User: What shape does this take?
Amino acid sequence: MSDANRDTKLDPHTEAVSAGRSGDWAKHIVNPPIYRGSTHLHADCAALEEAKRHNRDGQFFYGRRGSPTQWALADALTRLEPGAFGTVLYPSGVAAISNALMSVLSPGDVLLVTDNAYDPSRGMATGLFKRYGIETRFFDPLDLDGFADRFCENTRAVLLEVPGSLTMEICDIPALAKITRDKGAVSLIDNTWATPLGFPALSHGCDITIMSLTKHVGGHSDLLMGSVSAANERHYRRLRLTAQQLGQHVSPDDAALALRGLRTMPLRLERTAETALAVARWLSKREEVAHVLCPMLPGSQGHELWKRDFSGGCGLFSFVLKGRSDAHRAALIDTLDLFGIGFSWGGYESLALPFDPVGMRTATPWPPAGCNEADKLGIRLAIGLEDPADLIADLERGFAAMEQV
Assistant: This one.
């Protein structure tokens, strides 16, 4: 576990290359080997008992507790997350969210959830957690003045997301995290969009940060995985124990793929963010577009907060059509050649997905106040590694097809 304990902090590009490679499992080769095995062997009964009793990180015991391949990935992610004590791995991003929340909540507790949260997060909060006696209350993440009033004596945790899912709002995370801490609750944030390279969430006051490694860390649309990093030992031990009790485990082969993707993640983030900004600027000049929802774009909601708190972004953003119908939107998307139609993002290929925030909100309206009620149909773009001019030309053809409906 020597990477996590190394004193010298390196540039994130260097960390992405070197982290997770200095343990006993990676002394003589560049990439940590893939350890496949359910059974770990012990020298004698005393060694078996010691491993069972101490349950240490990086200690062979049984396959479900991990092996060097998984430990190398967890160490690398801890190194990339400033202020992290430790990281736990999960078989998907949704598993990471649910397990993180379960580690800090009990029956009778109240959970506050940002109203622009990822839809599966909303679903587990109003479904699974409700069944187990946990109450969820949604809040407007942009209403900083009213946030403190959302707490009660039973509020134990707040789930944040930045930017908001689909509608891409940027909120004042440091201020919300401080209020949460002052109220004696735990702040958790889904930080998949920017990753710690673009937004070190723990350094901005959050207690626990969550990532879907399926996205940028994997980077090639060929694995499902999630991670949770904690700012202190107490939260980390709760995360680790909860994961073990629920049998959470990732395969060594997927961990190796995630490690491989991690090495190039900074370069891919920079490239996709640069291309996304070029496409967003082009869309902002189209008369068919009512709003471009991209915090990196000057003039967009939250851009000033993004400039203040973030050092980078990624290729994911959205736009809203001006007064068009479902048929218009479908014609645009169906005509696209370089954009696939599908879920997920963060891979090397571009994707387009229709979305309708109407009916997905509890505490905030859509369209937002002051916007035209007819401007409500959205398209989410996940920009990949293609040339920006080719992507713009593809969208140009989509807009032309839309006008034929």
